[in-house]
Design goal:
Elements lengths: L1 H32 L20 H17 L3 H20 L6 H4 L2 H16 L6 H20 L5
């Protein structure tokens, strides 16, 4: 049973990455463009451009979430996203109360740890990272062959 579950691991990590990245990008799109209920949650509002930290957080959410969803630069994008959610938790939520359930920081804490996990697991299956890695490893032997001098 364990072997069967282990063989599915890259696919489950890939699906996890896609879902987490999509949800994160949706938060950014809601704040920046007023879609999906908008930044205020129901009035369709947006975060004013350039305001700290809301607008910058929304840009990180949209860009890093999209990159993670696509599996492109997954580890770096996940690291940035994890850090932004740690900042959100400790600067915005934690001063109100210690526990996420009490301070409304559950989403920030969950996103922080989900992205932190992706920093260490990578993109899993279905990611563009793997496609580019495969192409570069296929091109490596050709490049080495070109470097090798031909005996005359």
């Amino acid at each position: 049973m364990t072997a069967r579950l282990d063989s599915a691991q890259p696919y489950v990590i890939g699906l996890f990455r896609i879902v987490v990245g999509l949800l994160f990008a949706c938060h950014g799109a809601a704040s920046l463009f007023g879609v999906l209920g908008g930044a205020a949650g129901g009035d369709g509002g947006t975060v004013p451009a350039g305001t700290w930290p809301g607008w910058y957080a929304a840009v990180i959410q949209l860009v890093a979430g999209g990159l993670v969803m696509l599996g492109l630069g997954t580890r770096a994008a996940a690291f940035l996203a994890s850090g932004s959610m740690a900042y959100a938790y400790f600067d915005v939520h934690q001063p109100m109360a210690l526990w996420p359930l009490e301070n409304g920081g559950e989403a920030s804490a969950m996103f922080c740890w989900a992205f932190f996990l992706l920093v260490f697991t990578g993109s899993g299956a279905f990611g563009l990272d793997r496609l580019f890695a495969r192409r570069s490893t296929e091109a490596e032997p050709e490049a080495e062959a070109r470097k090798t001098p031909v005996a005359a």
